[in-house]
Structure formats: C-alpha cells, structure tokens
Amino acid sequence: MTQDVISPYRLTLQSDHLWLDDVEYELQQELGRGKSAISWLYRRTTANSTLPAQIVLKRYCQTGHQTIDFSQALAFELCSYQRLQCAGIAHPRLLAYSHEYYCLAKAFIAGELISDLLIRQGLDDRHFRPMFAMAQQLEQHGFHIDYFPTNFVLNAQGLFYIDYEAHPYNGEWDFANWGIYYWLNRDGMRQFIATGDVRHINQPDQPKPWVTPFQRQRESLMRRLANGASPIGK
Length: 234
Fold this sequence. Notes:
Blueprint: E1 11-14, E2 17-20, E3 23-33, E4 37-44, E5 54-60, H1 73-87, E6 94-98, E7 103-107, E8 112-113, H2 114-121, H3 125-140, E9 143-145, E10 152-155, E11 158-161, E12 166-168, H4 175-184, H5 186-195, H6 215-226
Antiparallel strand pairs: 1-2, 2-3, 3-4, 4-5, 5-7, 6-7, 8-10, 9-12, 10-11
C-alpha cells in the first residue's frame, strides 16, 4: 500500500536544523514521546515560502513500548496516512519522509490538546460529540485509530487527529469500548501526565483502561448523545 506514497518534499537533517527541499527549519522544542517515536517542533527560518511556518518531525526510535516492529514503523505510518486520507477525517498533512533518517515531517496543528483540556476543565458533550462522529466515520471506512487524548487537538476549525496510527477496524479498540475511558478519567490522566505511571490510567499489566469507575458516566453520555441532547453548559 505504501508504494503509492510519494514524499512531497525532500527531507534533509543536520544537527538542530532540517530542510524541506531548500526551505530551512530550526528546532524549537520536543513535543512528546510515543510508543515508537519522539516528536519535535521546528519553525521555518525564512518568511518567503508556501510551506507551513511550523512543522512536526517524528523520528522513530527503539522503546520498550513498541506495538509495531521498529523496522516497520515508518512503513506502517505511511500506510496509516493513506487510511486517514481514505476515511477523510481531519489530520495533519504529510510533508516529507526519509528512510535515510527514518522519520517523517507533517504540518503542525495549533490548538489545545484534548488531554490538556481534560486535565484543566474536564470534557463535556461538546468534546465527545465530534469524537464520536469521527469514530463513526472511521468505522464506516473500516478503520480505528489510537483514541488516547494526547493524540487530538481542538481549535476553531474543529477536532484534529494529530497522530497517523490507524488499523483495520476492531471494535475492541474503538472509541466507545476503549478510548472513551481515558477521556473520562480526569484524575488518572492528570497523575499519568505528571508521573508517567500508567497504573493511573490502565488496568494492571495490560494496555486497557480502567472501566468500572466510569461505566455509568459512559452509559449516561452515550444515551444523551444518542438522544441529541444539548451540550452541557449550553
């Protein structure tokens, strides 16, 4: 599937700078660490360009938490990008990738992470409604994604999935049966972000969220959205 993915620009890395063709970017900060990669924010150093002012460079590395074999990580991401395009959900544009540097570059999506919103104020129907709509759209196209709250940004244009991970649909890992429990676990997410200890959000020794404490809240939320109730606070 990935043989059809052509890198839009040539990517070159050198120390704390990168180039997309001849357009230079300078490293600004680390954005986060995932199961198989570290993401970095870069800013364009020149004003005259049609390329984005800020981009994200995702560099794959060996970790102790890989769900995809390291040697297949880039190929899987490119395949996932095609799946997201097929499903038509909001996600960052792929700008370049490199087998030499084993990385990819994508547009930076400004806004607030769902995980930050969850910790700061909690989430309500205004956040869950577009997420359920996105999940339904993905399911209709035969895919599910990583519904963890750090993978989503909300801005004036709507909800964006900023990761590229996408799999053939499996209801065990969809939003209603997996991701929603992370979106409801405000205290657990706060402690996880502060400490990195997955015991605050996951059941022992498995990549499954705590379910029982949030079951009634989940059921109430899903009934309310199914009935078309107005968002909380409206």
